[in-house]
Amino acid sequence: MNRIKFGTDGWRARIAEDYTFDNVRRATQGFAGYLKTHGLADKGIVIGYDRRYQSEYFAQAAAEVMAGNGIHVWLTDGNRPTPVISYAVVERESGGAVNITASHNPPTDNGFKVRDPHGGAIAPEGLREIEQNIPETMDGVRRRDFAAAQDQGLITLFDPDPAYIAHISTLIDLDKLRNAGLKILVEPMWGNAAGWFPRLLGGGTNEIIEIHAARNPLFPEMQRPEPIRPNIDVALEKTREVGAHVCLINDGDADRMGIGDEYGGYIDQLRAYALLAYYLLEVRGERGPIVKTISTTTMLNQLGAMYNVPVYETGVGFKYIAPKFLEVDGLIGGEESGGYAFRGNVPERDGILGNLYFLDFMLQTGKTPAQLVEMLFETLGQAYYYDRIDTRFPSEKRPEAKARLDAAQPETLGGAPVTGIVTLDGYKYELGDTGWLLIRFSGTEPIIRVYCEVNDPALIQPVLHAGLELAGLA
Questions:
Q1: How many Å apart are CA 465 and CA 460, to the nearest integer?
Q2: What is the mean pLDDT of each run of 10 residues along the chain (474 residues)?
Q3: Which of 121, 125, 100, 96 lies closest to 31, judged by CA?
Q4: Which of 106, 201, 288, 337 is deepest in the core (most CB within 10 A)?
Q5: What pLDDT digit, counting tens, does each position of 72-91 carry?
Q6: CA dihedral in degrees (28, 30, 35, 37; nearest 10)?
Q7: DSSP 112-125
Q8: Would you state the pLDDT for residue 394?
Q9: Sheet holding 332-334, edge to edge
C-alpha cells in the first residue's frame, strides 16, 4: 500500500486514488499508536468532518479504528467548522482530534488533520512519529464495528456547538454585533460555515444574505473553496449588487477567512492579518507577541515596533505556528493563507471568530472596511501590495528546481535590489525597503508558490515574474 505522508497541515489526497477508506483507517491506526505512546489514549478523541464527498463515512471509519484500539470517540453529530471541532478538544479534555477535511483543496480531494490536547496542530516531530506508526498493510489496523462500538459506549455522538458559542461569547459581545444595523453578505463557499453567521448575528437589526450555503462537494462557481480570488468573485459581485456593508468569507472548513469591502473589493489576506492585529492592539488595547509565518506581511513587524510587542517568524503552517503561539502566549498568530489564531481561544485558525472581530472593528471605529485599510496605511505611513502565483509542479521535479534555487544569487528582482536571502521555509528574497519575494513548494499540494509584498503596485508583476524565472517556471 502507498506511503501516507503528512504535509503542512495533515494528509490530503485524491479521493478513491490514494484517499481511500483503508488508507484513512491506516492513518487513524498511526494516530492511535501515537496517543497511546504519549499517555493520551485514556482521554479519548474528538472526530469531526466537513461537507466533502463521503466525509461523514470516512469519519465513521476513523471512529471504528479508534474504538478498535479501546479509545473512546466523541463523534460530531454532523459536519462542523474546524474551530468548533478544535474547541471541543479543550471542552471535552480529550487527547486530541481527527478532522476529516481537505480545507481549501479542489473537490477531487479529501484530508485527515490531527490535533493535540490544546486543539492545535501537532508539531513536525509529532507528525513524523504518527507517520512512522502507520502500518504498511491493513493487517496492522484494529477495528470495531460502528454500531457495536456505540452500544458499548466507545463511540458517542455529540453536538459541540453550544460549548463553542458560549466560549466565543466570552471573547466578543454577540448581542452588540446582532444589533449593528449592517447589511452583511456571507460566503461560506459551500462549506462548514454555512448557517453560522445567520445564527450568531441574526435576530437583531442586521440584514444577513448568505450565498453558496447548501452542501455541494463540487463547489460550483469557484475552482476550490479557498477564500481568495477568483473563487470569491461571485460573492464580491453580489456584495456590490445588494449594497452590503461587508462580505464575510470562510473556506470549506471555516478555519480561514476573507473580507470583501463595501465596494466589492477584496481585502487580501496580508492586509486582513495586519488589520486584525491593529484591532487587538489599538481598539482593544491588548498586548502580546505576534506570531507570523515567513510568507506573511511585514506590516506586522511595523505594528510590533510601534506597540512594543515582539514578533516571531516561523515556517509555513500551523504545525509551526501553534507550538510557538503556546510557547510565547501569543496575542495573535497567523499565516498568508487567511488563517489566524487569537489569545483566549485555541491555538488554531478560527475564521468564524476572525470575521466577528472584523465586524467589531467596524463597529468600534464607525468605519467601513475600505476606510479601515486607509486608516491602517496612514498609521504605518505607507501602503502595501501583495499577490501570489501558484503553478502546478510535479513532486519528482522538485530536486531539480531546488538545486536551481540553491545556486541562484540574484542581485535584483524586478528592478528591486536583493538585500538578503532567508531559507527558513523556501527561498525568501528581501528587497530592502521595497518588500520581499518568496518561492516555496506547497506542503499540501503538487504546487510551487511565488509570493511577493511590495510598497509600489507597479512592482508586483515584475517581481513575481522575476521569481517565476528564478524557479524556472517562466
A1: 9
A2: 87 96 98 98 98 98 98 98 98 98 96 97 95 97 98 98 98 98 98 98 98 98 97 98 98 98 98 98 98 97 98 95 97 96 98 98 98 98 96 89 94 97 96 96 88 97 96 88
A3: 96
A4: 337
A5: 999 999 999 999 999 999 99
A6: 160
A7: EEEE-TTSSBPPHH
A8: 86
A9: 311-314, 290-293, 332-334, 340-342
Per-residue cell: 282: 489599538
Q: Are 351 and 336 in contact (CB under 8 A)?
A: no
Angle at the Cα of 154 (from 149 to 156), degrees rounded to 5? Answer: 100
In angstroms, the CA 75 to CA 39 distance is 21
* Cell representation of residue 392: 502546478
The conformation of residue 107, written as its DSSP 8-state character, comes to T
User: Distance (Å, rounded) from C-alpha 246 to C-alpha 6?
Assistant: 36
pLDDT attached to residue 443? 80
The three-point CA angle 241-257-55 to 5° equals: 105
**Distance between CA atoms of residues 95 and 234, nearest Å:** 40
Task: Give the cell for residue 378.
Answer: 496612514
> How much is the pLDDT for 73?
98
Architecture of domain 385-470: 2-Layer Sandwich (3.30)
3-state secondary structure 273-291: HHHHHHHHHHHCCCCCCEE
Determine the length of the chain.
Answer: 474
Classify domain 11-165 at the CATH topology level. Alpha-D-Glucose-1,6-Bisphosphate; Chain A, domain 3 (3.40.120)
What are the domain boundaries of the chain?
11-165, 385-470
Q: What is the pLDDT of residues 444-474, one digit of tens each?
A: 788 999 999 999 999 999 999 999 999 998 7
Residue pair 463/436 in contact by the 8 Å Cβ criterion: no
The secondary structure of residue 418, as a DSSP letter, is P
Task: Give the whole-angstrom CA distance, residue 194 versus residue 348.
Answer: 20
Report the alpha-carbon distance of residue 74 to residue 72 in Å, rounded: 7
Non-local CB neighbours of 197 within 8 Å, separated by 6+ positions: 184, 186, 208, 210, 248, 352, 355
Instruction: Let me know if 247 is exposed, middle or buried by CB neighbors in 10 A (0-12, 13-18, 19+).
Output: buried
Q: Does pTM surpass 0.85? A: yes
